[in-house]
Amino acid sequence: MEVVQHDHVATAIIAVPLQTVQEVCNILIAAGIKGILNFAPVILKVPDDIVIDNINLSNKLEGIIYNIGG
Protein backbone atom coordinates (compact mmCIF):
# COMPACT_ATOMS: atom_id res chain seq x y z
CA MET A 1 0.00 0.00 0.00
CA GLU A 2 2.80 2.40 0.83
CA VAL A 3 4.31 2.18 -2.66
CA VAL A 4 0.94 2.84 -4.33
CA GLN A 5 0.32 5.90 -2.19
CA HIS A 6 3.91 7.22 -2.11
CA ASP A 7 4.45 6.90 -5.88
CA HIS A 8 0.88 7.87 -6.82
CA VAL A 9 0.30 4.61 -8.68
CA ALA A 10 -3.15 4.58 -10.30
CA THR A 11 -3.21 1.34 -12.31
CA ALA A 12 -2.45 -2.31 -11.64
CA ILE A 13 -2.43 -5.67 -13.38
CA ILE A 14 -4.06 -8.69 -11.75
CA ALA A 15 -2.74 -12.11 -12.78
CA VAL A 16 -3.35 -14.32 -9.76
CA PRO A 17 -5.14 -17.62 -9.12
CA LEU A 18 -8.92 -17.50 -9.27
CA GLN A 19 -9.27 -18.16 -5.55
CA THR A 20 -7.54 -14.90 -4.61
CA VAL A 21 -8.45 -12.48 -7.39
CA GLN A 22 -11.29 -10.60 -5.64
CA GLU A 23 -9.24 -10.29 -2.45
CA VAL A 24 -6.27 -8.89 -4.39
CA CYS A 25 -8.60 -6.52 -6.22
CA ASN A 26 -10.04 -5.26 -2.92
CA ILE A 27 -6.53 -4.66 -1.53
CA LEU A 28 -5.53 -2.71 -4.64
CA ILE A 29 -8.63 -0.53 -4.47
CA ALA A 30 -8.11 0.11 -0.76
CA ALA A 31 -4.56 1.23 -1.58
CA GLY A 32 -5.87 3.76 -4.10
CA ILE A 33 -5.72 1.97 -7.44
CA LYS A 34 -8.30 3.34 -9.91
CA GLY A 35 -7.71 1.17 -12.99
CA ILE A 36 -7.13 -2.59 -13.22
CA LEU A 37 -6.14 -4.83 -16.10
CA ASN A 38 -7.60 -8.20 -15.10
CA PHE A 39 -6.18 -11.43 -16.53
CA ALA A 40 -8.13 -13.68 -14.14
CA PRO A 41 -11.18 -15.43 -15.62
CA VAL A 42 -13.69 -13.74 -13.31
CA ILE A 43 -15.77 -10.57 -13.35
CA LEU A 44 -14.62 -8.43 -10.45
CA LYS A 45 -16.99 -6.59 -8.13
CA VAL A 46 -15.73 -3.01 -7.87
CA PRO A 47 -17.12 0.45 -7.11
CA ASP A 48 -18.42 2.51 -10.04
CA ASP A 49 -15.35 4.78 -10.08
CA ILE A 50 -12.92 1.89 -10.77
CA VAL A 51 -12.05 1.09 -14.39
CA ILE A 52 -11.65 -2.63 -15.16
CA ASP A 53 -10.40 -4.12 -18.42
CA ASN A 54 -10.93 -7.89 -18.49
CA ILE A 55 -8.51 -9.77 -20.74
CA ASN A 56 -9.39 -13.26 -21.90
CA LEU A 57 -6.14 -14.79 -23.12
CA SER A 58 -7.94 -17.67 -24.82
CA ASN A 59 -9.86 -15.25 -27.02
CA LYS A 60 -6.71 -13.25 -27.79
CA LEU A 61 -4.78 -16.39 -28.76
CA GLU A 62 -7.69 -17.60 -30.89
CA GLY A 63 -7.74 -14.25 -32.72
CA ILE A 64 -4.01 -14.42 -33.46
CA ILE A 65 -4.27 -17.99 -34.76
CA TYR A 66 -7.24 -17.05 -36.94
CA ASN A 67 -5.44 -14.03 -38.38
CA ILE A 68 -2.30 -15.97 -39.30
CA GLY A 69 -4.37 -18.68 -40.94
CA GLY A 70 -3.46 -21.41 -38.45
Descriptive notes:
The protein is an alpha/beta fold and 70 residues long. The chain has one domain: NAD(P)-binding Rossmann-like Domain (Rossmann fold), CATH 3.40.50.720. Helices cover 39% and strands 17% of the residues. The chain contains 3 helices and 3 strands. Strands 1-2-3 form a 3-stranded parallel β-sheet, with helices on one face. Helix 2 (21-31) links the parallel strand 1 and strand 2. The relative contact order is 0.18.
The CATH superfamily name is NAD(P)-binding Rossmann-like Domain
Number of domains: 1
Q: Count up the helices.
A: 3
CATH-derived topology:
Rossmann fold
Question: In which range does the helix fraction lie?
Answer: 25-40%
Q: Structural class, from secondary structure content? A: alpha/beta
User: What characterizes the major β-sheet?
Assistant: 3 strands, parallel
Topology:
Elements: H1 2-6, E1 11-14, H2 21-31, E2 35-38, E3 51-54, H3 57-67
Parallel strand pairs: 1-2, 2-3
In a nutshell, what does this entry contain?
This protein has 3 helices and 3 strands, in the order H-E-H-E-E-H.
List keywords for this structure.
3 strands; 17% strand; elongated; three-stranded parallel β-sheet; Rossmann fold; 70 residues; alpha/beta
